[in-house]
Fold this sequence. Notes:
Chain A is mainly beta. Chain A has a domain at 2-89: Immunoglobulin-like. Chain A has 14 helices and 54 strands. Chain B has 23 helices and 16 strands. Chain B has helices at residues 3-29, 45-52, 59-75, 85-91, 100-125, 135-160, 184-201, 214-229, 246-267, 275-278, 308-312, 332-337, 343-348, 410-413, 425-440, 452-461, 515-523, 529-539, 541-550, 584-591, 609-612, 623-626, 637-641, and strands at residues 37-38, 80-81, 179-182, 291-297, 329-330, 355-357, 363-369, 372-377, 418-424, 447-448, 471-472, 483-488, 496-501, 555-557, 575-577, 629-634.
Amino acid sequence: MRKVLLSLTLLCAAGGLMGRDITGVVMDSDGPVPGADVVVQGSTTNYEITDENGEFTISVETGDVLEISFEGYQTQKVKIDSKNKYSVKLVTESKQLDEVTVTGDYGKQKKEDLTGSTAQVDGSKLTTAPTPSVESALTGKVSGLRVSASSGQPGQAASVQIRGVGSLTGSNEPLYVVDGMPINGGGRTASNDNPLASINQNDILSVEVLKDASATAIYGARAANGVVMITTKRGKNTKEENQESSTISYAGQFSVASVTDKLDLMDLQEFASYYTDPYVAAAYNQTVDKELVALARYGGSGTDWQDEMFRTAISHSHQVSLTGGTDKTQYALSLGYMNQDGILVNTDFERFNTRLNLENQVRSWLRIGLNMAYTQMTQTKQNGFDFADDNKLSSIGSGSANEEAVYVQSLISSPATAPRDFNGDYTELGAEDQEIKMNPLREAYYSPINLKKHNVMGQTFVAFNITKNLNWRNSFGIDYASSGESRYTPAQGLGTNQQEFIDRENMYYRFCSTLNYVLPQPKESNHKLNALLGYEAWKASWEGTSTRKNNYLDNLKFIDKQYQNTNLGNAEGLISGYKGAQSMMSTFARVNYTFMRRYLVTATGRFDGSSTLAPENRWGFFPSFSLAWNADQELFMKRITSKKKITQLKLRAGWGQTGNAGNNMGYIGSYKSVNTQNGSGKVYGTWLNPDLIWETNWQLNAGLDASFFKNRLNLTFDAFYKKNNDLIVKAEPGPTLASTVNSYLYTSVPDINAGSIKNVGFDVTLTSTNIQKENLGGQPFSWNSDFNFSFVRNEVVKLQSDSAVLEGKQSFKTATRTYCVSRVGKAPGLFWGFKTDGLIQNTEQLNQLSRADATDVGDFNFVDINSDGKINEDDKTYIGDPNPDFTFGFGNTLNWGPWSLNVFLTGSYGNDVYNLLRSKLEGMDRGGINQLKTVLNCARVETNEDGTKYISNSSTNIPRPNSVAEGRNVANVVSDRYVEDASYVRIQSIGLTYSVPRATVKKIGLNNMRVSFNVQNIATFTSYSGLNPEVPNISAINQGVDTGSYPLSRSYVIGLNFDF
Amino acid sequence: MNLSNFKYKSLLWGLGALAFCSTSCKDFLDVDVYDQYSTESVSSYQDCLSLTKPLYGGRLWSEYEGKFSWCVNEGVPGVLFNVHQEEGALFLLSFGEDNPILLEGYRSLYSGVIAACNQIIDKVGSLETNASLSDAEKNQILAEARLFRGYAHFLATEYFGEAPLIMHSSEDISGNKSVPRVSRKTLYTAIESDLKFAVDNLPDNPTDNWRASKKSAKAMLAKLYLTMGSCVKDLPGSVYPFKVSSSESAEYMNKVVDLTSEIIKQMGEGALDTHANIFSSAGRTAPSSETVFALYWKLGDYGEGSMYQAQMGSEEVWSPGSGWGSGKGISYTLYNSFDKNDPRLYELCLVVDHEYTTATGQKVYYGPNHGSYDIKQDHVKTGTDFLNTGQCVLNNVKKFIWGVDGTATQEKGMSIDRRTDIIRLSDVYMMRAEAKMALEDMSVTAKSSAGLDDINAVLRAHGAPLIKSAIAYFDDMSQPATSYTFNVKVDEGAPVAISVKEDKPMYHNLIREDFVQQRRKEFAMEGQAWLDLKRFFYRDPESAKMFMEQMDRGIQFSQNPEIQDESLFETESGYSRRQLVYDLNAILMKKYPDNGYNTGEKEPEVFVQSFIDHKYWFLPIPTSAKAYLAPGVQDLTSQVLDQTYPY
């Protein structure tokens, strides 16, 4: 019946003209190709598909042109002459990037053969932004990958999460693998260290993100949070590329950056009118400041500290690379330099790097290679921005304040004070024990944190072809970093005249040996098999010293940079050190089997042994299993769907397990040496838990890859269910240690396996060619879109006990308070505090409340959640969720001849931020510090004749100023007053590229030349009142609290690329 | 290239690599802790000795010593007057389970000492014995830890009654919130087992003379038996009351006599020493001749040394920069019960116009000036040359107060070196006396001469007046109600007589000679008074109740009192009534509404009713600790006995 219909359609299409039937066979180098498309050019209806033997029959007329296509092969055209039998040979397409997933030491796989969930980003897409760190450039590019660029400090790491939260108190960062070698591998790195900053993005060929457990399983331990694989550019056989000689390329960028926005702080006139208001002065128990009145009378807006602290930052980078080679030897050599200034004064990042990738086919059976990079970096940072990072690494659910950050200090500095006096010297402002602690500008110039780092990273390999089908590869890699950090603190401001140096040395080496067997494939075989067996071992070691000396040149309050060293100190020094190591050893095996190109099976198993666990618990086994079905290869699918509508349809399902052994050797406790009257004794410093085992992460993934309309629309959809069990967390103290986390006692609780968390979600990636015209005004035109969307829901399934609460604490405004809580059955890190219900408008309303505190008219009305007539701890409730409902990225590229315009948007929806910085800037609990303009409309409490009070400006939502330290309004009471919706849409970049036509560049001796103009971080649409809705996350249980990060910048970038 | 030949080479390579991997496998993953002493590094006797050192004072005991000990051991039984905030709440008996000082003591015992002991017991218990650690050495270490664990549990149960019993270090990290409070019998059984092990395994004379010896363990065991043997009455309020029959009691008391006699025989009566020597500045750190079992504090960092001097001392004299002794003093009831010829009084507290010498040789006096009493340095007592005109303060504790040397920093003042005797020989004598008295007569008020030799041995050695014929455990206080007249100074005018009728006699007026009072005088400020009172309570709850009820806690050292009553107080002692116990304030307010009594500071009230109601003879378990405990009490004695106790 179907054939009849088809014939009828054909009849109509042919307009009544009957052609003749011809037959043919489609072959490739291995034999017949079933399922290839055979289409009569120009026809939308006349097509056939080759059968199991690669044969086809189609009705044609002489002169027709047949197009024979099959994915992975070049399309062949055959002109129909008088012959009735044709044989068509398909040639594989030259290697395309997105076809092969390079799995480093673990072998290569065609994308077609993959059964797991992966995504790939072309290296060229990462170089438009002038950021030193590659992960920032991945923002919004991959579904399921959430990048939070929470700091504008040049060189600072952004936080990256793949598919939600895997660990409650530990890191959720993925494993980064460069050319097959894991970096930042095991062990502790310096707290200020961002290993990714040592990689020059211009060297990157591609970045792949492995998301589900079946894709990451081969990486075993440490891959529990997913894997980001970075592949650097290789050399090439110039002959194969039809080039005469090697290629020399240059890539340069010049950019100008400035702050995107400023906070709306009071200027001098507003500051004076606020603080000289008798009502306000009385609230702070002050008399009206007559000097301030006088100062304001002179007019002017006073010191705008934000203007003083921010600057227009200029950055430039240059890279020269050489790639080339012969059929035996390929090489790629690059030299790069980058100098980036930060938008805050005296912050910058400078990097020099060089990389050599070299491979040689020594004999037909022997291949050797080297890739090696050296990087030197210096970084100048302002204090205060690193504290959160420190805590992130120590994996504790508490954060520390940015209260002393010069940036935060500048925000509260009075517009009535000048940074410099008439002589140009810095004015003395503030003191350590005051709210305003320093002259922030002077602190910025005299007391930054200077970091220096030398890094050598790379590996060599030797590969043997034992037989044609059996390859044995051995690689040895190192990652060595030596870094130094220095910090000078002047006598004024934050404290004593003091110099501190921290020297760190990190060494990581790794050995990997793999045997890779490929099943010989006779022509008639429908079986494809690839098996991998391997062994891997790595060891990381770290040590460092910290030296400090006080009171040097004590007759000076602060000294110039060139004299800042410990040799000049004259007081007792303080020296401490640390040293540690960690190792891991693994064996693994993987089998990929494909039957008839349609049915794919991958099975992986990996044994990992970690030095962090007790010998008897040391080894973990992590299996994974996945299946895929290339449905589009099925003949029946080809027959029932027009190949033009569905070009690819692949269904995937996988299950796998990975593990994490933690970074602390929890099975060995440690003693602290203690002084006793009778000599030195030992007590437990850290308690041991010999029963610590691997935490496991199992993940179920089901996915779909589909391409429609001749690949003009591509869809990848993955749904996943991820569960992490036996999470390694700090123990809840038992009855003995009950509520005793106390400095008197030595013992800190050990790591234990407790708790479980699950993540459910889906990722969608959609790429489309919306418009494709061969000719638009004489030039080809196309419009392509990329859209990715990630949805994750996470929930704490289990903790040490059902009633356990993990608290996320931040210290700010001198007190450490809990802002986030994680409980069983809820998403991790929910904000916890009082709910407000407007302001207490009058005495009558006040008297309805039972009060223990100093609450008065004009304060926030807290909701009595448990209706017991009292407002106390029991009335705290969930007041916000820092976990986003979904995140997305949306890119559009318009190509018109040599011009290319790119617009890229990212966004996040449904996440709240606790604006702790605003609590300082709108808290009104301390006199004399600058505040947001909103406080000008603070509640004015008036008194009636009968002594009752009321708010005269009743429409305000800003409470009364109040210097009572524990009142309801003050900054340190956690309430929904500071919880804000931080959903946003950001125009991340708009770029315009002009590729100079070949004919033109040839004239000046070049092969290619490209000029680009790019604007980064153009606009953010959000209702969030702070400068950046992305805030640093300390851990899953302590996230979304804005303590005042380094603001993001908007930058204008001009780029020039050419090669010859 | 011959392929088969190459295969052979590859095979060699491969075998070599495999050999490399397999041989290095084990070592490769054995990474140690390099920048700390790891638990793995402890294996020899010497290593183990360093583990038990911290049990003898320092941070583990720091919170217990910091406030809890003197607030509970001295404040609650009325040895130390102090009405300051939470500390004072314990003296005024107005505390609840939220009082932070209770928590400090609880966690010092459990999170500090008991936790550390369990860690040592579990760690050392798992060590293999060999040449560097013999079986006897291993057992000695275990015995030291078990002695301290027993002692800490003993304190815990005397303070908190039915308290948790923690015997395994793993419990501390279990997160288990259903650990039960256990019956006193369970606790006593476990403590007895620990102490017996210590008696069996501690050496007679340890190489380090400060370490616990066999006699330390015997003395603690005697203390335990004395306590258990005293429990002869029904106590209300518990599902598992601890009570022994009279024959059992006698058995315990006989054991006490045996154990104490062994110690006395070993040490000899000559070891008894004067208070001046025992509490001398020069000998404050080393064991004294009386020391049987003691803690030792190191001069040094906060938490390592003793905070006692900073808490009791005067800033001007003893602890420059960190003396918070103001407002604290030996209670009038105790002061007044001393014979003024008893030299122990002058070691216990500063007596007006008596000369004292500080560690640095300064002469100091405590005396009146300009309406105030103050401590002055290098004062030559001529007329009115006291320089300071500061407010009158009660600040007269002297025992253990020497002042640190002239180079002392503020931190050091907070952390002085000293010895704290847990049990000294006088206590061993007094325990034997108490046991003998108990064996003689179960009634507390009956006079006896059974233990008199032992009591007098102590008094004689200390230069105190001896007891002539017989002594009662506790003097009968059931006397008729009395009426008192106070001369109250109103508005700078002449004192006005105010009469108050009481239905109970006031204890301050009695110079007592009973055994309880003898112990109070001998061991004041040594952490014994509460434990003594507890035994008294077990023996006779009604008398103990009366003792609490009739003690006058309202008198402090003051020269500027609102009430002056020449007839009641020895003026030269400097004591006068300032804080009111009974309803005097209300009378004053009514009578003189315009003289500031109605607006002035509220006089603290003494909540003696809690003790009358038996509520606080056992202190409440602190709120935040309670959150980690199962409700109710369990008797797990059998599990302790068959060594299956799970927690």
